[in-house]
Each structure stands twice: as C-alpha cells, then as structure tokens.
C-alpha cells in the first residue's frame, strides 16, 4: 500500500479538510483535519480514523498508525 492509497481509504468515509499521510508501507503516520472531530475526545477521534481502515488494522496491511487529529479551527490555530 502507498501513502496515496491509505489517504484515499481514509478520505473515502471521513470528510477531511486536510490530510497528510507518510510511511514505509507498514508503519504510517497521519495528520487528519476534519469537522467531524468537533466535540470528540482524542481517543474518539482516533477510533473514527481507525474505523475507516476496517480489517486493514487487523492484518499486516497497516501494521502501525500514528495519528494526529484536529478540527479545522484547531488546525488554523496551529503555528505554521
């Protein structure tokens, strides 16, 4: 799997204002900005991202995923 493929899987079911995915084919990092995260705790946000990957999280297809999540307002407030 490529970073673009993983990004497409996430964005297929989670509307994202911004997304960055990087990794080596098994170990991934994702930065996801979505309005759907509003009012959710960090754990709930991560569960929402994991849910987009379904069974891929239980196989070696996605061995590890590090996630940073933001609402659009939180992302806009980040130092650039």
% residues in beta strands: 25-35%
The number of domains: 1
**CATH C-level:** Alpha Beta
Helix share bin: 25-40%
Overall, the morphology is globular
The CATH topology corresponds to GMP Synthetase, Chain A, domain 3
* Secondary-structure element series: HEEHEH
> Superfamily at the CATH H level?
BolA-like
> How large, in whole angstroms, is the Cα Rg?
12 Å
Secondary structure class reads alpha+beta
Q: The biggest beta sheet, please?
A: 3 strands, mixed
- The low-confidence parts are none
Average of the residue pLDDT scores: 93
Distance between the termini: 30 Å
CATH architecture tag:
2-Layer Sandwich
Order the strands across the largest sheet as they lie in space.
1-2-3
The count of helical stretches stands at: 3
Number of strands: 3
Pfam families: BolA
InterPro entries: BolA, BolA-like_sf, BolA/IbaG_stress_morph_reg
Family: Belongs to the BolA/IbaG family.
Protein name: BolA family transcriptional regulator
